[in-house]
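Quick one:
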Amino acid sequence: MSQKFTPKNLRQPISCYEESTWHSNGSPKWENDIYSVWADRFPVTPGHLLWIPKKNMVGHVRVTYGEAYEYGQDQIDSGKWAGFNIGQNMGMAAGQTVLWPHIHLIPRHKGDCEPGRNGIRLSFPNGDHKEYY
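Output:
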């Protein structure tokens, strides 16, 4: 008999993939034995995806991250996206709200921002955002 898991609330410790809040958000777009891919519930751009490893283990996170990167690169190569942001928030101090590893893959398109002005450096709101380049 399979165990029934209840999705946890935001900022609650999660002990397994099945407790993540995504399971109360419909169904994954696709999945395999290592990870699942979900539409972000609060997307920053259309097509914002979450790549979620099924185990909180370095190997699973590494494979999931690599697959997300390859998918993003394929979208650029096919002309569907101009670029993408990819990353993780790990720990509440970094802005993580669902306390299970997951990778954000955010499509970027020409004209959706001022060129070179809203990359990963701006994820730290109190950081030094001077132009160094």
